Amino acid sequence: MHEIMTIEEVAAYIRVSERTVYDWAQKSELPGGKLGTTWRFKRADIEKWVNDRLSKEAAVKSGSKKAATASFVLTRERVVLLDHPSKKEVLTQLVDLLAETPFVKNRDALLKGILEREELMSTGIGFGIGVPHVRIDSVTDLVMAVAVSKNPVTDYTSLDEAPVQIICMLAARTDQHTKYIRTLSAISSRLKDPDVRREIIASNDPAAICKLLIDSEQ
């Protein structure tokens, strides 16, 4: 995976136009630098920028952790416990769970979108958490599935190199930007609590894991 990204790669990663990335870079709103006349961006800087932005938007839009976590579209039926999976096995199983919902119209298109997103940049955000996500036309509403691996997913690279064990997959309709960002923010905020992470990994009860993720009053 390349450590240096182009404007095109950053635009695809954060789902905005190349012109928007250029404007943000010109205004120093996005971390980057010029090599001659060409903008280049460090992958780690972009990951950090995205995570910081998500956290800020969560605080502004939700007003409280409970309000943010209430936006999760998750049920116990979409929580799966695994043992020694590969990254692709985890992603495929979560896509299959989402494809069982009425919100996903094309399972293969969703899997393709998720895998392409991961090829661009791993969604291991640190703290042992992976958040594969995509907005795609074949999804009619935001939906979520979760995998918990009792052992680390060894080929799931992460920003802080911590082994990934909790994987939360989000799929949303292309135009659901606000709800999508709010939910990503809530996941990140909730799972930054080490006690919540430990309880989730130790649990063998999908219903309890679901409650830990969506109920802030633990």
From TrEMBL:
<dbReference type="Pfam" id="PF12728">
    <property type="entry name" value="HTH_17"/>
</dbReference>
<dbReference type="GO" id="GO:0003677">
    <property type="term" value="F:DNA binding"/>
</dbReference>
<dbReference type="InterPro" id="IPR002178">
    <property type="entry name" value="PTS_EIIA_type-2_dom"/>
</dbReference>
<dbReference type="Pfam" id="PF00359">
    <property type="entry name" value="PTS_EIIA_2"/>
</dbReference>
<dbReference type="InterPro" id="IPR010093">
    <property type="entry name" value="SinI_DNA-bd"/>
</dbReference>
<dbReference type="InterPro" id="IPR051541">
    <property type="entry name" value="PTS_SugarTrans_NitroReg"/>
</dbReference>
<dbReference type="InterPro" id="IPR036388">
    <property type="entry name" value="WH-like_DNA-bd_sf"/>
</dbReference>
<protein>
    <submittedName>
        <fullName>PTS system fructose-specific EIIABC component</fullName>
    </submittedName>
</protein>
<dbReference type="InterPro" id="IPR009061">
    <property type="entry name" value="DNA-bd_dom_put_sf"/>
</dbReference>
<feature type="domain" description="PTS EIIA type-2">
    <location>
        <begin position="71"/>
        <end position="216"/>
    </location>
</feature>
<dbReference type="InterPro" id="IPR041657">
    <property type="entry name" value="HTH_17"/>
</dbReference>
<dbReference type="InterPro" id="IPR016152">
    <property type="entry name" value="PTrfase/Anion_transptr"/>
</dbReference>
